[in-house]
Amino acid sequence: MIVVTLTDCPISLRGDLAKWLVEINIGVFVGKVSARVRDNLWKRITDNVKNGRATMVFSTNNEQHMDFRVHNSDWIPIDFDGLKLVMRPSFSRTKALSDKRIGFSKASTYRMVQKKKNALLQKDESINVENQYPSDYVILDIETSGLNVSMDEIIEIGALRIKQNEIDSVFHTLIKPKISVPVSIIQLTGITNEMLEKDGVLIETALRELIEFMGNSTILGHNVGFDINFLNATMKKECVSEINNTCVETMDMYSRLRNGKKVSRKLKDIAKYCHVEVLKSHRAVSDCHTVKSIYDVMRNKLEGRE
User: 0.70 exceeded by the pTM?
Assistant: First the structure.
């Protein structure tokens, strides 16, 4: 089963889709087709929608039992611990981040950009890998009370400053929430409301200390787009300057190593692929240490040292 929605698209495209799907409302199509036909339809859509917008949602055999694609949208598909979600960045950051952030561009150009990068790296061995995979950077991870940037809160921030591939300093803080943390998050992270009330600091204090710790360093993270978006949305509420640092995404490195194959992108599964032991999951500093270990392994592989 697939659902396609089109906005501001040519009438001819709607007519073309009507050969395969049922238009149940203006620009809304539903139907049941094979995966091959579905992929061909999506190619037709992206080739002919021009300046319009398109979304496709379809059933698949994953944890959510569905997947989706978007075209010409500021809403960005992200992978959150194996779950596919969407996040909308602030307007002021959309253009700036699309050029700077590895793996954090519009979904409509993401695959094309990555293919071009891979092709260039394969053709030109003289490319300075250090520019793409730095030895000086900050690893960042946050834990939140939920996935909704408008309603949920940051409850823990962890970061590691890395200099010449070695850990130089550690940043960690718990944050007092305005609303009690749900039981599901307590079970996932082990972070209780009592811990946050006793040891947590005000969110504004935590954000300012984090900015001072990171400075202008490149930020490395697993699903780093989620962390940066959540932090910036919170910073906007607290009248704190947003993060505009260059970022490196470990999920893109993993995807490149696996030649773009559809595989689990959960941190624990990538750690298993890299033969890295995970001592504790869903705690900010512990996850930062795991990210550091898998980054070292994947960087060596991508540089041809393993």
Answer: no
Same domain, 205 and 68: no
Q: Is residue 109 part of a domain?
A: no
How many angstroms separate the CA atoms of 143 and 81, rounded?
A: 12
Residue in the structure block whose two tokens are 């309603």: 151
Pick the closest to residue 228 from 113, 149, 136, 124 (CA basis). 149
What are 208-235's pLDDT values in tens digits? 999 999 999 999 999 999 999 999 999 9
- pLDDT on residue 108: 42
pLDDT band at 67 (very low <50, low <70, confident <90, very high): confident
How many domains are there within the chain?
A: 2
Of 105, 113, 17, 9, nearest in space to 51 by CA: 9
Beta bridge partners of 12: none
Residue 82 belongs to some domain of the structure: no
Instruction: List the domain range (segments joined by +) for residue 183.
Output: 133-302
